[in-house]
Each structure stands twice: as structure tokens, then as C-alpha cells.
Write a structure and sequence with these properties.
Blueprint lengths: L1 H20 L6 E11 L5 E11 L4 E7 L6 E8 L2 E2 L1 E2 L9 H4 L2 E7 L2 E7 L4 E11 L4 E2 L4 E2 L13 E8 L1
Parallel strand pairs: 1-12, 6-7
Antiparallel strand pairs: 1-2, 2-9, 3-8, 4-5, 4-9, 7-8, 10-11
Length: 166
């Protein structure tokens, strides 16, 4: 009887280990790399590269809050040689297929969300481009850059972030 119990316990542990190994993880962001070029007028041209694994949901997004006098313009997303279609308005409740290979800006109460469809589940490398007007603020005695480029309460954990401002 003892051998049977040990055998059943061993089998249970094996099934548990196999089951845990095959669990689908939530969406994860391995890294985000941001290259921000500031022109002589204080506007920023931003290129982001996102390496992520998307296993659920319909979209990926980058929120910006409290834009003040700044605006996001010329937003685009690509993956490899595929350029996403830019929608004039983004509907967060649209279906997976309606968002596939599309991107757009979702205007929220205190800012914007730069959104794009996942298109298919799995690993992705997205290239996101946009401009931010009035990125540099003029003060009475100087100029400053004061932005939260990676939100602190982001919906997904980010493995690594690299930001270059030049």
C-alpha cells in the first residue's frame, strides 16, 4: 500500500510540474528602448522598440498623462516590414480582428494612450514612432524637460528600459 501511495504522489507531482510549466503567462514586455531626438524648437521625435510577448487581450498601449501644451502627432507602428494602418480614432472595445495591424490614439480624460493591435499572439518586436510638440518647456530663466516616459503604474511589468535623449 505504501508503494502505491508513493507512486501516486510521484505521478501527482509530475502532472503538477508539467501543468505549471505549460501555464500561459500574461502579456509581458521584455524591453522598451526609446530614442528621443529634440529639435531646435523643443519638439521631440520619438522612436520606441518594444520586445514583448502577447498571449492575451487585443492591444498594446503606451499611455501619456498630463500633456499640458504638448500634443502627440504623426503616430505610426510597424513590425518588421509590416506598417500598421493608422486609424483616426481608436476604439478600445473593438475586436481582435478589427484591431489587427492597426494603430491609433485613444484620448482619455487626463492624457492619451498610443494603441496598436496585437494582430497575433506570440513574441513581437514593434517599432513605434511619433512626435511630441513642446517637449521642452520654457521657464522664465531656463528650459526644462519634465516627463514620465514610462508610467509607474503600467499594466505590464517591463523587464528593461533604455531611454536616450539627444
Amino acid at each position: 500500500m505504501r508503494k502505491v501511495l508513493k507512486f501516486l504522489l510521484l505521478i501527482s507531482i509530475c502532472f503538477l510540474a508539467i501543468g505549471l510549466g505549460n501555464c500561459v503567462k500574461a502579456n509581458s514586455i521584455d524591453s522598451i528602448s526609446m530614442d528621443i531626438y529634440i529639435d531646435k524648437n523643443g519638439n521631440a521625435k520619438v522612436t520606441e522598440v518594444w520586445n514583448c510577448d502577447a498571449n492575451q487581450g487585443t492591444e498594446v498601449y503606451h499611455p501619456y498623462y498630463n500633456l499640458g501644451k504638448s500634443e502627440i502627432q504623426n503616430f505610426s507602428v510597424s513590425e518588421g516590414s509590416t506598417s500598421y494602418s493608422v486609424l483616426s480614432s481608436w476604439h478600445t472595445s473593438a475586436s481582435f480582428s478589427e484591431k489587427a495591424y492597426k494603430c491609433g490614439i485613444n484620448y482619455i480624460e487626463d492624457g492619451v494612450e498610443l494603441c496598436w493591435g496585437i494582430s497575433k499572439y506570440g513574441k513581437h518586436t514593434y517599432t513605434v514612432n511619433y512626435e511630441i510638440t513642446n517637449f521642452v518647456s520654457s521657464l522664465t530663466d531656463s528650459q526644462m524637460i519634465y516627463w514620465t516616459l514610462i508610467p509607474h503604474n503600467f499594466s505590464n511589468e517591463i523587464g528593461k528600459a533604455y531611454i536616450k535623449i539627444h
